[in-house]
Amino acid sequence: MYQTSLFFEIAATEDKQKIIEIFFRSWIDEICMNEVSYNIQTPVADSDHFSIDFERIEDATAVKLRGIPDEFSEYIKFV
């Protein structure tokens, strides 16, 4: 059961969505040492938001504190 969620706004074209998803998985796994269970929901047609659900609140806090890396800040931001 999920304890908390983080939401992100994505500013990327449709062809870059898969790259963003790969980045998210790698980024979160690195921060949470592969101990996180998350669900990335693809944005609906009129939305540019991703939701990542965490089983442990500590993992979500670590992701939030670490922040979006500079090289991706043009494409991703917290909502």
Count of DSSP-assigned helices: 2
Helix content: 25-40%
Structure classification: alpha+beta
Widest beta sheet: strand line-up: 2-1-3
Mean pLDDT: 80
Q: What share of residues are in beta strands? A: 15-25%
Any idea what the shape is?
globular
Q: Main sheet?
A: 3 strands, antiparallel
**What is the number of strand segments?**
3
Which helices and strands, and how do they pair?
Layout: E1 4-10, H1 17-31, E2 49-54, H2 57-66, E3 76-78
Antiparallel strand pairs: 1-2, 1-3
Quick gist of this model?
The chain is an alpha+beta fold. It contains two helices and three strands. It has a domain at 17-41.
List keywords for this structure.
3-stranded antiparallel β-sheet, alpha+beta, 3 strands, 79 residues
Describe the structure.
There is one protein chain. With about 80 residues, the protein is of the alpha+beta class. It has a domain of about 25 residues. The protein contains 2 helices and 3 strands.
